[in-house]
Design brief:
single chain, alpha/beta, Aspartate Aminotransferase, domain 1, Aspartate Aminotransferase, domain 2, 2 domains, 15 helices, 42% helix, alanine--glyoxylate transaminase, Aminotrans_V_PyrdxlP_BS, PyrdxlP-dep_Trfase_major, EC 2.6.1.44
Length: 385
Amino acid sequence: MTTPTQHRLCMIPGPVEFDADVLSAMATPATSHVDPLFIEKFGSAIELLRKVFFAPTGQPFVVAGSGTLTWDATAANLIENGDNVLVINTGIFGDWFAECIGVYGGVVDAVRAPFGSRPSLAQIEAALTSKHYKLVTVTHVDTSSGVLNNIEDICALVKRVSPNTLIALDGVCSVGAEVIKQEEWGIDVVMTGSQKALGVPPGLAVMVVSKRALEVALNRKSPPTTYFASFKKWLPIMQKYEARQASYFATPPVQLILALQVSLEQLVAAQGSLEHRFAQHRVASAKVKDTLESWGLKIVPVNRACAANTLTAVYYPAGVAPAEFLGKVGSRGVVLAGGLHPEHATKYFRIGHMNVSVVNDSLVKHLDTTLNAIKAALQECGHKI
Ligand SMILES: Cc1ncc(COP(=O)(O)O)c(C=O)c1O
């Protein structure tokens, strides 16, 4: 725990740095979850989520939890014992999502690619034509590899080859920063957590579900295999709050939802449009990647087309030891993340660039501070720049 004066910049791929207005929205006295002021803010957050997810007819769900709970919710509400699920895997989060689906009785196949790349559309098409899948899951940005998936193309392919298959997008490391047009692209479930590009402290599981997926969940043969994450339980609660009425199933994390509402307002206001915010993330990402490459480092994604804009995963140069390097960056006031993929973890590190560190870059200079700390640490570790 650090005090504000000791604070080191948190440049990991989530939790990210927080905007002051988002943080101060949480500093309320004890507030009832049925207080009219809270009801108004929760209702507003639900409405704003439809805008941020580009899902005008989608059903938002916001519950206490983290991104992982949205996997459980998706699987427990949509999957029945023996249902086939195809997981498009670009890193360890694909493996873990697959494991989660298995817990709820899904029978999982995966399409994979070597570390740093993504499966081809031909591979996905071959899998989709081999049997009927009830659900396809895809990770937009796999935070373990920094790989960005081509969601629009994958959705178009699924619609063409297997239109009845539901599509679930793990947008935990992308929502609010990478382009997602949920309804236009036909995505049934888009999932995220509060602590990444939404720029809210950890603790919220956030998802928007299509009408089609909601019908599947509400009309399943067996009861949902979850109590807390049941769409059936939460749907009337979300509807009531949106109608500005008191409601209760399980206590909502009041202060986090107040922060979410402020963050979502900022997102939709982002100097005119969300598109502008997406563009800012592309610019920030290119700045980080170009700089690292100009110093002789190699990024993990095999090319820029499949490189995320929310984080940069980059290999340590030869001779640079992970713990020493990360320690030296830390002593300059910047926290980075090491590698996460179990097979490659010691070969690369990760820099998060989302939300306030990107959209206020010219003001806060988080990117320059981070790059300067990396440069100095690399040089001290013996890497010639
Ligand atoms: C792509 C992706 N999916 C899912 C998760 C799990 O989210 P959480 O840690 O909030 O449970 C993460 C967390 O980093 C993630 O990056």
